[in-house]
Amino acid sequence: MSRRRVSTYGSTFSGARVMSLLMTLAVLGALYNQVRDPNMWRWLAPGREARADVGAPAAPAESKKPATEFLRETIVEGPNDQDDGQMVDFKAMCRVIEDKKPLKNYEMPAYWKLAKWSRTQPFDQLEARARKDVVFTQMWQDPDTYRGKLIRMKVHVRRALVHPAPENEAGFKDIYELAGFTDESLSFPYFMILTEKPDGLDLGAEIEADGVFVGYFLKVMGYETFKDKRASPVLIGKLKLLEGARKKKAAAPMGGWMYGALAAGAAVVVAGFFLQTAFIQKSRKSNRLRVSGEVVPEELPTDFYASASPVDVSAQVASSAEPLSSGGATQQTS
To answer: Helical H runs in 7-142?
Structure first.
């Protein structure tokens, strides 16, 4: 039987290893093309829109459209914060308001009064009278000073939900609850209450829309998250969406061909890994046999004992029974 020559590990480079290496490079290239897209990393910078036209020349200034758009607005005649009597009533209602705690039923009269005030004036009039210099920390630290005051801010809305309004004297049927932040508040959100949804605003738990909000400050409301307890200012008023407001945008998804390429590449890499592992184990076993001097058979017969040649047992017995001659014995012992 011929001796099989086994090459040591590292002297050969199997086809499986070549294929797995090529597919690994292909997968890495596909991943690189995906992660270099700025839209994929928008979640790291909330409030900053990742432009799909990065590197494109900016449009001329004269081609820009007006900054704001508000198509529908319902005005209901009635008194508001400009009437002295209304302010006296509101301040009396505010005596029971507790900041940095959840909204209570006994605080709702002040809530509905601010909601009615917001419907008595057009957005432009509210914005003209509103304060534009109030920031998050001021409302947080000194809520009594700003309670019932009109405040204007540019917000990045990230949630907009509608709820059936509880029974109220103003007759509101639905209440729109918005959550968003400003460039100044960063990760600290505001809660904004609307009695009317502006055209173009999508509803949902995860949206993206920019707008200008003008509303009356009610309180710093406490609430619980799955991690801890927090508190945010609550304002009741109106929202004007900015032109080209982002709505339900997410990072650019990978195409179907990209998913297929990644799946195929991963399958080839895994298969190549197992094939290479089997090849290495076989090579090591062959090397151990060669070093120990054993013969590595090419292939064993199906019936090993049937292929053995017959042996003349009687001849072997007769040969072993012959006495040894003295000379022969002397030669052997010598």
So the answer is: 15-35, 84-93, 108-119, 123-129, 136-141
* Beta-sheet pairing, 229-241 with 190-194: parallel
Round the CA-based radius of gyration of the chain to a whole number and report it.
42
Query: Tokens standing for 153?
Result: 């801010």
pLDDT tens-digit readout, 175-186: 999 999 999 998
Token pair of 180 as six digits: 């968003």
Burial class (CB in 10 A: 0-12, 13-18, 19+), 138: middle
Closest CA relative to residue 218, chosen from 316, 101, 323, 66: 101
Compute the distance between CA of residue 221 and CA of residue 97 in angstroms, rounded to an integer: 10
What is d(CA 162, CA 175) in angstroms, rounded to the nearest whole number?
6
Could you identify the residue written with the tokens 């690189």? 32
Amino acid identity for residue 175 in this structure: I
Q: pTM to 2 decimals?
A: 0.57
Q: Spell out the residues 6+ positions from residue 194 whose beta carbon is closer than 8 angstroms to its own.
A: 175, 176, 178, 236, 237, 238, 239
Query: What is the rounded (10 degree) CA torsion for 79, 81, 84, 90?
Result: 100
Convert the pLDDT of each residue in 116-135 to its tens digit.
999 999 999 999 999 999 99
Q: Which helix (H) or strand (E) holds 221?
A: strand 209-224
